[in-house]
Amino acid sequence: MNKLGFIILNVRIRKMMIRFPLRMAHYIMKKTATRKEVFRSMMKEKIVVITGASSGVGKETAFRCSAAGAKTILISRNEEKLMKVCKKISLQKGQADYYTLDVGHPEEVKVIFNRIMDKYGRVDILINCAGFGRFEPFVSSTIKDAERMFSVNVIGTMSCTHAVLPQMLARRSGHIVNVASIAGKLATAKSSVYSATKHAIIGFSNALRLETADYGVNVSVINPGPIRTHFFQRADPEGSYSAKIDRFMLDAEFVAEKIIQAIEERKREINIPWYMGLGAKFYQWFPRISERLGGRWMKMK
For 275-284, b where at least 16 C-beta lie within 10 A, e where not — what string? Predict the structure, then answer.
């Protein structure tokens, strides 16, 4: 090949190098826009109930559901924060309503969900975000603390699910999303009770999915690692553990996007971040080796 040929080839290669990223960017933008349109059409006029919706992941999920056209019903104990979230949704031209409720009290759950059913007639999607944790050695905890954690994290999830499930099965349509935790798959020191509650939610979700599969009702479980929210103000009041893992923390917005993905793609389970999900898998396959190699990390709290 002569000198002119090399010059022409070089020019063509450079053009390809410029065009390829532009074409890829255009493709990604087009695909993202298409995905958003599909989600909007899926969510339009859907009745979505979200627990733990006054802050963190629940709040961010509410913003995304309402932006897609869903009628979003927010549930939390904090009325003041719920009002602020509703107001923000209204300013963004979304539809939102709220009910104050402690999901740890099954009888109160029945009352509130009966009101929701009377007003809206149905619930299309239930997203169970409500929950809390406290990190301390089990010997230092009290059974009363454990009961309270189970009542909110587990019984609360079950009570809300039990309240909406009959009408979903009757309509042969619905989606239940339960927010558990990687801690339910990979337990660490000082999270014995919290891990037990999240393990229970994963087991509950997996069994429920089998029960509802033939009735058009989807069940998803989201297992996030540590999230940068107010959760740690109660779980780790001294802030020592939070400081150690700050760089590994997920943003609430990112977790909310994964919940949206689970709804959109009818995912059975999402583990985030991916490397913690992989670590949980490794632990299930090789528990003894995992505890020997990762014992220091698993006792970081």
Answer: ebbebbeebe
Q: Which of 221, 190, 184 is nearest to 300 (CA)?
A: 190
What proportion of the chain, given as a percentage, has pLDDT over 90?
75
* Catalytic residue (choose from 98, 99, 194, 241): 194
Residue 239: per-residue pLDDT = 76
Tokens in use for 91?
């300013």
Beta partners for residue 176, in sequence order: 126, 219
Instruction: Please state, in angstroms and rounded to a whole number, the distance separating the CA atoms of residues 151 and 154.
Output: 6
194 as an active site residue: the answer is: yes
Q: How far is CA 30 from the centre of its chain?
A: 26
Quote the DSSP letter at residue 217: E
- Gyration radius of the chain over CA positions: 23
**223, two tokens:** 């297992």
Distances 85 to 49, 100, 145, 188, 251 between C-alpha atoms, Å: 14, 13, 29, 34, 18
Sequence-separated (6 or more) residues with CB below 8 Å from residue 182: 223, 224, 225, 271, 272, 276, 277, 280
Interval 140-176: pLDDT, tens? 999 999 999 999 999 999 999 999 999 999 999 999 9
Judged against a pLDDT cut of 90, whether residue 129 lies above it is answered with yes
**What confidence tier does 38 reach under pLDDT thresholds 50, 70, 90?**
confident
Asked if 71 and 46 touch (Cβ cutoff 8 Å), the reply is yes
Residue 47 and residue 122 in contact, taking contact as beta carbons nearer than 8 Å: yes
In this structure, the strands spanning 71-76 and 174-179 are unpaired
pTM beyond 0.90: the answer is no
Strand order across the beta sheet in which 217-224 lies: 95-100, 71-76, 47-51, 125-128, 174-179, 217-224, 269-272
